[in-house]
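## retry 2 of 3
previous attempt timed out at serialization; input unchanged, resubmitting
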Amino acid sequence: MIQRGFWPDGAFDPGGVLDVLTRDRVHRVLWFTVWTAGLSTILAVVLGVPTAFVLHRLRFPGQRLLRTLIVVPFVLPTVVVGVAFRQLIATSGPLGGLGLDGTPAAIVAALVFFNVSVVVRTVGAFWEGIDRRTEEAAATLGASPARVFLTVTLPALAPAVASAASVVFLFCSTSFGIVLTLGGLRYANVETEIYLLTTQELDLTSAAALSVLQIVVVTGLLVALHRARRTAPPLARAGESGRSPRLRDLPLVGWTVVVVALLMTPLLSLLVSSLRTDGGWSLANYRALQGTGADNALLDTATHALQRSFEVAVQAAGLALVLGTIVAFLVSRRPRSAGVRRLSATFDGVFMLPLGVSAVTLGFGFLITLNRPPLDLRTSSLLVPIAQAMVALPLVVRTVAPVLSSIDPRQREAAASLGAGPARVLLAVDLPHAWRALAAAAGFAFAVSLGEFGATSFLARDDTPTMPVVIYQLISHPGSANFGMATAAAVVLAAATGAVMLVVERLRVGSVGAF
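## retry succeeded, writing output
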């Protein structure tokens, strides 16, 4: 991409990149990306912080169910979220009277819906670890609950809130499926602009320039976030499991119930819409998935696309698990040399790049790189699994590496002193500690690959699409029959992804907010 942007004709020419960045449309795209991501981040924090208190500092019946419901939106494929909001705010939808269809407000609402759980999980996990004795001491000295929160709790929570806000801003500014399905050609962020420049205008130089700009900005944000986490003070565990709600907590409990209801409304509306045909209840939209839609909107059936999505996800998850485990093993070692430690940290950061580089940029990079010998994979069925594996790779590393780092090295030394070789040490010491993390990582990778849309939209052929691509193809064709099929396909994909993530959640390894 750097070569396409700065060496378009074989000679170094940065003027082409500067020309792209001075265009009025690019300025509008950049501003739309910044303000929608910023507003979505603020709203997600406002909704998420009180909810984090209720779900992580209080204890009451049904709390675990609410925690699960909160995390559901984050694990959904973005194209499913886009379809859910599109049918919710459409003229014939439940909220059609609000006039939100085709407006930036719909995009912001969908971004908030997708990212509230990041705030709840990140801030909530941090909140659980704050020593409550400092709060109790302030209360004993006469401070009101509001003053205790403002002078004691909030300063302690600041690193977690900043971390959550940074991650949410990152996810919102690199959102592709939501903006594409709700904004269409009228509203574009950097992600969708790269996609349109590549697929509609065939302007690879401009697309490369935007991709390079995005890589620089997002990577800088990740570096700042990493340094902020390293300098954050350690938590002091109080050892309490939480308390029962008090009378003064009822407004916050009610707030949490409202937040959960708002998060569930688009999903329930999507399910109801998929079961309605011609004003009555029917499974016709689901039966239609065996066909190609009205006016042959698809070149292959949705059922075949779902089967293909499972096959690709298995391949991508397997590749990501193998590569990610190797990387996690290497970066979890504890070398004595400072130089080797810095090299290990750099190595770790390199393999985190797919987290900072959007899936659209990643797919675009594969498209213009693996298109000539000796790596001409344009027509290979392996191209999509490879791209999806790279998208899932950081999640695997971040799930497995902390577990491997927590193993006492003296256990490995003891096994080695008793004559165990390196392979035997791995099987006898590392594997018993890490098998749950490995299973969770495989589930994460499978779920991410199953719903991946950004990179796949560049690389999948029309005659061999995955399920997310089929959903977008259906909503891109006019007609209620095609949109009905899209809602049914979105429900099926959401159910499959959600089932996998529920299994991962039961393993109780990692956190979606940890990235």
